[in-house]
Amino acid sequence: MDASGYVTLSRQSGLLNQMQSIANNIANSATIGFRREGLVFSEYIQSTGEGPSLSMGYGNARVVDLLQAGLTETGGSFDLAIEGDGFFMIDTPQGQQLTRSGAFMPGPDGTLKTGDGYDVLDAGGSTIFVPPDARGLSVARDGTVSADGVPLARIGLWQPTNPMSLTHQSGTRFTADGVEPATDGAIIHGYLEESNVDPLREIADMISVQRAYELGQSFLDREDERARAVIQTLGR
Fold it and tell me: What are phi and psi of 229, to 5 degrees?
């Protein structure tokens, strides 16, 4: 295969990764707290020593879209949404992770948990305990959890020190190289944040990527036919 074939194959690989990312976005367009992901293409340029240089593109890095999504009122006592910057921090078997999905519930022991059973952490990185007999539960915009007017804990809001290091792990959970307290976010009690995926935009992107992939495949097919014709001619 000549250089043009390798260049096209690297592009096809990136387009395939982009298609998978778009499909995942569409599948999670109704998932509470989901963050849309995009693909970053990089370019590798190598001098050939003669004539034009060789350039190859590759899409292998995903970036998380932090655009604010809409908020839906649920009235749930343990439903929380974030307005502005920040993530909730939760404790998982793989370590502390970040999420924007605030559909929480008290566990059997009174600790506040996610739907997957992971502990929600306060501003100091500790678990949050809500007494089973607590009444008049309220959560202030700064994350202070109170029952009958008595403060119980303060839910922490965190953000990655480097947004580009935010890495999707599973579902609505993320990790980052480092985190710090989020100062420009507020917690809204009785609401949940929707997915920030725009299905129409994703479908339009999918069509564009599919057309680009088909164009690349058509080029590879023609190159294959050309190589076969050359071999057959030389073999006569």
Answer: -65, -40
Phi, psi (5° rounding) for residue 67? -60, 135
Residue identified by tokens 């935010």 is 166
Residues 32 and 92 reside in one and the same domain: no
**Residue 212: exposure state from Cβ atoms within 10 A (0-12, 13-18, ≥19):** middle
Q: Answer whether 16's CB lies under 8 Å from 213's CB.
A: yes
Report the C-alpha gap between 134 and 150 in whole angstroms: 10
For the chain, how big is the Rg over CA atoms in Å?
A: 24
Q: Cβ-count burial of 191 within 10 angstroms (0-12 exposed, 13-18 middle, 19+ buried)?
A: buried
**Are residues 186 and 96 part of one domain?**
yes
Chain segment 205-226, per-residue pLDDT in tens: 999 988 988 888 777 777 767 7
Q: What does each C-alpha distance from 22 to 25, 33, 134, 155, 201 come to in angstroms?
A: 5, 17, 44, 33, 10
What are 144's strand-pairing partners?
Answer: 154
Domain with 35, as residue range(s), is: 3-66+197-234
In this prediction the pTM is 0.81
Q: Which residue has the tokens 């593109």?
A: 57
